[in-house]
Amino acid sequence: MKDEDIQKIAAEYRSKYGNATNKDLLFYLLKRLDDLDNEVNDTKTQTEKNKLSIKIFYVLLPIGLSIAGLFGKIFGM
After folding, report:
1. 25-64 pLDDT, tens digit each
2. Which of 13, 35, 67, 76 meets the CB 3.0–4.6 Å disulfide criterion with 27?
3. pTM
4. Number of domains in the chain
């Protein structure tokens, strides 16, 4: 990350929490930790969606195959 980015984030936090120039690095690290936390939450949500999709697939697959086999027997295919 560039120095300009660090200074920009530090200025943003300074404007929110007051002018504490000796805490710029702390504010930068807090911002990065917040970003990482958001990324982890997004990843966790996507993983849960994928697991649910897989469970639904494994429930519907045998039902679909059974129905296909039943139609095959009924219509003599």
Report:
1. 777 788 888 889 889 999 999 999 999 999 999 999 999 9
2. 13
3. 0.53
4. 1
pLDDT of residue 45: 94
Give burial (CB, 10 Å; 0-12/13-18/19+) of 11.
middle
Give the domain range for residue 57. 3-74
d(CA 33, CA 63): 46
C-alpha 62, offset from chain centre: 30
Which residue type does 42 have? D
Closest of 31, 11, 29 to residue 20, by C-alpha: 11
Residue 22 DSSP one-character state: G
Burial class (CB in 10 A: 0-12, 13-18, 19+), 30: middle
